[in-house]
Amino acid sequence: MTKIKYAIPRGARVAAQGLTGAVYPVGDHYRLVDDATGSQAILSYTEVVQGLNMPGAPSRIALMAQTEAAARIRQGGRMYRYQLSEKLRDQIDFRKALMVGIEALIAKLGHVRATDLNRIEHRRFVREIAQQLYTRLPIDIARRGGSVKEVAIMPKGRTMLVYYTRYRESGGDEMSLVDQVWLRGNRTGHGICDRMRHLMTLALEQAYLDTKKPTIAAALKKLCTLIVQENDLRQQNGQKPFALVDHKTLSRHMKKIGSTAISIARDGERSVANNRSRGTTDTRALFIGELVEVDECKLSLITVAKKHGFWAALSENDKQALAEIEDVIRTRLYLVLMLDVASRMPLAWVLTDAPSEATTRELIRMATRDKTREKIRYGCECDPLPAIGLACFKADNGTGIRNVGVKQGLLGIRTHSIDARTYHSIDKPYVERMFGTIESTLINLIHGYTGRKAGALPGYDALRNGVLDCEELYGIITRYLIDEYPNERHFGTNMMGQRPIDRAAGLIAEEAVIVPPSAHDRRIHLGWMEQRRMTDEGIKAFGLPFNSVELQQLRDHIHSRVAIYVDPDCIRHATVLIENHREPVLVDLSWTEMQDLTLPQFLAVLEQAWNEDPQTTHLREAQLARVRARLSDQLEKIALERGLARSFMTVDEAQTKAARYSTGVHVSHPGQLPGTLSPDDIALELPASEQHRIGRGHQPPIEGGLDEKEDRPNERVFIKPDSKGKLT
Asked: Mind spelling out the 3-state secondary structure of 217-265?
């Protein structure tokens, strides 16, 4: 490609090396002279070309002729039309039209002077031509009485000639015609020296840049104190004392600090991070479910914490006592919301009195299941988003997210969890923006609205008007998130005015949707679990019976408790995990009457069945006691009349027999009978009256003889083994 070397005119303006000024060729290089300081620098051709494109040295300034009119434009710093206000742009259009009329007059007369432009016939000629180009206001030749806002008045001849000369010298640049009103006013330091500025800064630091948010009047008081102290020192040094400054001077100095710096000092970094941080303009997600944002917000609504059916079961005294504390049981609820970033469609929403692990798990279950039940129950017209998978789950570090149960559940369904910073809305801009929309278009219309902050609605009693219960409020929010919000045009980043429901339909048609997790994974990682023993009838969990053919085939191999997982939103099926069995087992609900209920609904039905009036409970229990007592008396009477043996045992009798068995079984050792000897005494061969010799006695052996032993009368020859004690 052929390289082009541009012709750089002498005096062209360039910004390079921290200098801004004109360049002059010096051989193969260029000399840059700064306008403000006079400093010089030697630039190469490449550096000059790059400097021509730097801010502060646009090409039209660099190539502008070195005339007085061009210098005036450069001095003002306004090179483009839309750097000016609307009023000044209209001034340019009017004066430019006059310049065309003057050029036509010059073409007619050949030459004009200021006196020529003051003649009435010449002014009318210029006006006729200018009025054709400038049509916003009528043009008057001279000023008359009345308002001047509805007409454009032609200047005097000398002024118009000055405008025309300046216009011609600038090469027909319309920017030379405008009045430099931006240079008006006092551009100096307003008579404030550096020491006074230091005192004003010190006063602002000590009495204004405070999180208690004092007023500027407090800073002005502090400044007066500092000036008085400073004047005492200056008087001792023979210097002129400072004059007190007014409120306007201090306010002007305060604005130089910067609004962001003032907000950090007075509101804190958290508030500035939420209110003044930069937004995002990139595309965060292309698939539905690729990135979802979750947040919780305490609604500015007063609701009634009263369950259906509970009020009717109360006695009159309880109703009266509850009515007295009715204001106490009114509360504000949290709305936990999940938003899909790719389509801006709401995926799940839950109302709760306090965010928790159970609330977040319920939110994830709702996003990964079908929501037709909510559509039918609350009478919605549009279809909600179907069940989707979650690839990336982004939420702040709140208590409802920062727990083991939620993290394990997300990992179980193969979802990546991202922890955003708490109280930093810039980390979750999409769902934060949606809360603002819900607040401004829905919440502030509902009875019991409290306002965005304390005391926002002084003429409205939110406690008295808070009559909605949780179910009614959830229905209103559901209809808004299904029927209204998805059908509104969205002008957020990358939405370009599309409606969220149309954007979602387009992505679904392109199959740009994350696959939802399997039913087994949802139940195991997001459902409710109980450990139960299996019987021939199957497994009973949460009061519901489950069974299947596959489970019965494993019946003989199950010797311990099994874990059964139930999806609270669909109790038709459950998953059973068995020890040492590889695959999960699917079981079905055998109670067909309850198949269409959710688990919370079934537990509510069960609770309602168990609930009973305390008076009715007392009457029923008393009746049962009477019937059982009458049966016992009848049986006892029959036994006495017919002489039947007693079939029961008293406590004393049972304890006596138990003591006999608890001491163990022992061998009997009877005493020695009179006139007899024990076998031990007989074996000693000692003379005794009870001993009688029978037969010849013991004979010695044929060969040899018995050894002679010492007489040992106390030694037992034949010793019987010790068998005393309990025999076991």
From this structure: HHHHHHHHHHHHHHHHHHHHCCCCCCCCCCHHHHHHHHHCCCHHHHHHH
Residue type, 431: V
* Residue in the structure block whose two tokens are 């000629």: 125
Max Cα-Cα span within the chain: 190
H helices present in 311-395, as ranges: 316-324, 357-367, 372-377
Res 666: pLDDT: 56
Q: Please state the separation of Cα 233 from the chain's center in Å.
A: 56
Mean pLDDT of the region 233-258: 89
The strand order across the sheet containing 13-16 reads 13-16, 19-26, 29-34, 40-43
Rounded to the nearest 5 degrees, what angle is found at the Cα of 355, between the Cα atoms of 350 and 358? 75
pLDDT at 313 over 60: no
Q: How far is the C-alpha of 262 from the C-alpha of 219, rounded, in Å? A: 14
pLDDT tens digits, one per residue of 507-555: 999 999 999 999 999 999 999 999 999 888 889 999 899 999 998 888 8
Whether residue 245 contacts residue 222, with contact meaning beta carbons closer than 8 Å, is answered with no
Confidence at residue 175, expressed as pLDDT on a 0 to 100 scale:
82
Closest CA to 168 of 80, 89, 69, 79: 69
DSSP SS3 for 388:
coil
Specify the 3-state DSSP secondary structure of 554.
coil
What region does 671 belong to: left with phi over 0, alpha with psi -120 to 50, or beta? beta
Indicate the average pLDDT of the chain.
83
**Segment 411-435, tens digit of pLDDT:** 999 999 998 887 788 888 899 889 9
DSSP string, 658-719: HHHHHT--B---PPPPTT---HHHHHTT---TT----SS-PPPPSSS-PPP----TT--SS-
* C-alpha dist (Å) from residue 547 to 64, 120, 589, 681: 91, 108, 7, 78
pLDDT at 307: 45
DSSP-assigned letters across all residues of 336-356: EEEEETTT--EEEEEEESS--
pLDDT at 728: 47
- Give the Cα separation of 78 and 61 in Å (integer): 11
For residue 85, the surrounding DSSP H or E stretch is: none
What pTM does this model have?
A: 0.70
Distances (CA, A) of 342 to 278, 382, 464, 467: 20, 20, 41, 37
Q: What is the DSSP letter of 377?
A: H
Q: 3-state DSSP helix/strand/coil percent for the chain, to nearest 5?
A: 40, 15, 45
CB 103 within 8 A of CB 125: no
Which contiguous run of DSSP H or E holds residue 575? strand 570-577
Residue 505 has pLDDT above 90, yes or no: yes
Write down the residue that tokens 């009458």 correspond to: 630
Confidence band for 63, pLDDT divided at 50, 70 and 90: very low
